[in-house]
């Protein structure tokens, strides 16, 4: 059984399964500090809700975020959690650790030789909380990133209980999940939203949950029944979160 350890830095909350936990957390902090220093030079990077052009001295992680944001049509900070998750897993690989899973507040990048099961949590009373994605070893490395208009502190302009996107690139999956969540309003067509998200280059699959509706598109991992008794206890969140 995998052992997950929790780690928090400022407004970010992680669950990490890797034998090099300490090295990963140090690298995550280092990358966050590089981003924070860059934001002082280009404050719009943090505030913009649309793609923008970076300064020449932008750090590599900011460049990843900006590319993903440009594809998804959102601001670069919409990609920060996914970008950090993938960066950490790739850093583990550089250390010779090939089995590593990093979740950053619902945005996951995973590389493993064994299957990974990711539970679906769309709010306390969602009828879909009994489901989970089962990711096979041959599907990894893979990103599964989520956004919600009802849960979490990240900005969402929509009414989606849960928007989850699968892609090979976690920054892209994160940005696309934000875009997907923004598209879903109280009474518009989920299918139309799915179609728009699937047009984003690099997105391989998407799931949208709105109240008692669920929509699926593209190539998603296998859906299975969730084995955990109380899924809410496993959700990564801030200490004062109420969802």
Q: How many helical elements?
A: 6
Please state the average pLDDT score.
Answer: 91
Return the CATH class. Alpha Beta
Corresponding CATH superfamily: ApbE-like domains
Structure description:
The chain is α+β, with helices and mostly antiparallel strands. The chain has a single domain, classed as Roll (T-fold), CATH 3.10.520. Helices cover 31% and strands 25% of the residues. The protein contains 6 helices and 11 strands. The strands form 2 sheets. It has an 8-stranded antiparallel beta sheet, covered by helices on one side. Strands 5-6-11 form a 3-stranded antiparallel beta sheet, with no helix packed on it. A hairpin with a 2-residue loop joins strand 1 and strand 2. Helix 4 runs antiparallel to helix 5. The longest helix has 21 residues. It is globular, with a radius of gyration of 17 Å. The protein starts with a strand and ends in an 18-residue tail after the last strand.
């Amino acid at each position: 059984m995998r052992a997950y350890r929790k780690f928090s830095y400022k407004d970010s909350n992680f669950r990490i399964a890797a034998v090099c936990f300490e090295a990963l957390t140090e690298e995550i902090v280092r990358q966050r500090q590089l981003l924070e220093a860059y934001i002082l030079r280009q404050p719009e990077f943090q505030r913009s809700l649309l793609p923008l052009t970076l300064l020449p001295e932008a750090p590599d992680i900011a460049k990843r975020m900006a590319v993903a944001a440009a594809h998804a049509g959102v601001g670069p900070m919409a990609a920060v959690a996914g970008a950090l998750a993938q960066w950490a897993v790739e850093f583990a690989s550089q250390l010779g650790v090939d089995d590593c899973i990093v979740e950053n507040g619902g945005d996951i990048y995973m590389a493993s030789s064994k299957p990974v099961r990711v539970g679906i949590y769309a709010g306390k009373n969602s009828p879909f909380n009994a489901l989970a994605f089962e990711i096979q070893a041959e599907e990894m490395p893979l990103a599964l990133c989520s956004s919600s208009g009802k849960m979490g502190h990240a900005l969402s302009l929509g009414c989606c209980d849960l928007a989850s996107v699968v892609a090979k690139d976690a920054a892209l999956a994160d940005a696309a999940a934000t875009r997907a969540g923004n598209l879903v309003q109280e009474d518009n067509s989920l299918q139309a939203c799915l179609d728009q998200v699937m047009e984003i280059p690099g997105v391989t699959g998407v799931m949208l949950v709105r109240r008692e509706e669920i929509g699926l598109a593209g190539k998603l991992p296998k859906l299975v029944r969730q084995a955990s008794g109380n899924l809410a206890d496993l959700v990564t969140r801030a200490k004062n979160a109420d969802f």
